[in-house]
Amino acid sequence: MTTELKTPTLADVMDAFEHLYPANLQEDWDASGLVVGRLSAPVRTVSFAVDAIQATVHEAIVLSSDLLITHHPLLLRGAKFLPDTDYKGNIIHTLIENKCALLGAHTNADSAVDGVNSALMLALGITESTSLDGDKTQTIDGATHSVGIGRVGELSEPITLKELAEKLASVLPATAGGLRVAGNPADRVQTIAVCGGSGDSLFSLVKKANADVFITADLRHHPASELREQALIEGGKPYLIDCSHFASEWVWLNTGAQKLKEELAARGFAIETQVLTTNSDPWDFRVSTGECAGSASTAS
């Protein structure tokens, strides 16, 4: 006899999500957690997006979502007042008026076993990876894992830097900025480090892991230049691939949606999940400043 699955409350969904992406994995400066929502309210449909912006909130409501889970917390930097003339206030009012809860899952989703960085690794075909820092632990399914921001692993066989960049481009959503790559496109690489979102604070850990390439976003001129100049003295690696912040974290959304649905099913609950189609990368188009001549280290 098949047991009929029940509709969970927001509290049930929160408990399942906490099991997968524990709040204690977030960094001290973060603000992950439930922003708005009644814990007693039923949740039938959960939408996932990278950002809580007007377009994603509108899409979630059109799709009759009871809960919107975003990677970036809406109130990371806080707010003293939330009138509807403020974009954050307008989002809060819209969500409440349409009975849609909002949950932010930021650095806890970055660090977790099935989190942002694990999803990025799997998208590249790397099934075994370890945490770059390993300063936290997560126990799931009876096993304790070392977790933390950033991961490192190996491709099954070496490929060229250009091939890696093309593979990455094929799994990321389209963005105006595309990918910026530092390194010789013909050089072969195998050990890959990743950090979804802004990752130049992890440069020392990337070097310690002897990574051939570091994939991240929001790379600033001076840290990137200094890393590359020192790398040229020491043999040329690690190379860098700088991608859209949004795109590097978007890869996780399908994983998060599927894991939450499975976890709730195991607890006797049924939900529908969906990844919103809105592209929340802030840039709209690019104008080329000419073909980059490169340097001796990057000439093909």
Automatic annotation (TrEMBL):
Keyword annotations from UniProtKB, A to Z: Metal-binding
UniProt cross-references to SUPFAM superfamilies, sorted A to Z: NIF3 (NGG1p interacting factor 3)-like
Keyword Cytoplasm attributed: no
Annotated InterPro entries: DUF34/NIF3 (IPR002678), DUF34/NIF3_sf (IPR036069)
Pfam families, sorted: DUF34_NIF3
Single Gene Ontology MF annotation: metal ion binding
Ligand binding (a divalent metal cation): H71, H72, D110, H245, E249
Domain of life: Bacteria
Entry GO terms, CC: cytoplasm
Family (UniProt): Belongs to the GTP cyclohydrolase I type 2/NIF3 family.
Complex and partners: Homohexamer.
Protein name: GTP cyclohydrolase 1 type 2 homolog
Species of provenance: Rothia terrae
